[in-house]
Protein: chitin synthase
Organism: Mesorhabditis belari
Amino acid sequence: MCFEYSIAHWFQKAAEHVFGCVLCAPGCFSLFRAAALMDDNIMHKYTTTAVEPRHFVQYDQGEDRWLSTLLLKQGYRIEYAAASDAETYAPEGFEEFFNQRRRWTPSSVANTIDLLADYRRACANNACISRIYILYQFCVIGFSMLGPAIIFSMLLYAQVAAFSRKYGSNYRLQHGTSWILHIYLLCDGEQYPTVCGKSPSIGYAFVMLAVVVATCSQIVLETMFSPTSMFVVGMIFIFLFAACLHPREFTNIIYGIIFFLMIPATYVILSFYSLINLNVINWGTREAVAKATGQETKKESKLETKLKKAWNGATGTILRRKEKAGDKRIEELERQLEEVKIAVQRPNSFNDSQIRENELAEKPWEDEEVSSDVSEARTP
């Protein structure tokens, strides 16, 4: 997530800022002018309750993108401050990541199409939105639509070059895998996103790893001017150059290895998952299952229950062994402390009377003064 968040700002936000204005101000690290929010046709329309199906996608699934679209249409400019620092929470699990992108992808497409459909009004009201900027957004949305097909073709050609297989057989294999994935997503994609997304993603990650190894060997042994080699080398160079321009975030480039292996998952599987689950309108991130779906939490299966019992039994045995070992250690320390105490008290084994006699023998005048004071106090 660190790498993806970084390149999204290094490239997309920066390009939008230079060419015109940013299309989306994320709510987690954005500042808005109160006067702009309370302007006509912004907050009043922003609080509109979704009724039509497209409203649920455009209004509710990406509320920050919807607010940004309203601000741009009204004539305000959204800028990207690259020097600012902000912190936010990112998805920490596979299912949470898929649910987040299930909301983001359709919402981004819907709001971009809404802005492009009303481009005359946007250009007339907003001096930062030009026709060239609108053309740029047309290209972006077009390549986004073609993204799964482009990645599919790249995977197909890379596997042919890496594994020396025939193009026809490899094409049928990839096409059949895609159809199986589509059917499974249509049947149980929303209920089991982890199974539908994680399993093929891991499989494609191993394929990408094999492609990387084959590409490296091709560059070393043959030439780097093949399409696959040039694509990989060019992409690595672009990312490294962008990371050098952002030295404080340079370490995020390390996670680019995982991002590269997950390209089929993020551009192909995730696109299918988002489009097939357009009917799902809950957020699904950082929510309890019952709160997100309005249903009771799914009961654990027998296998999960047995695994938990086995795990608890194993951990309980380990903890009990540690407690016994700790008790023995404490007893040993107490015994050692008792021995030290006896050894310290042994040379000073005098009773109180002997100690008092020794003190009086050394300082007899103190006792006389005390006795005289007592006698004087008793004199009437």
In short: The longest helix spans residues 302-345. Residues 287-293, 363-380 have pLDDT under 50 and may be disordered.
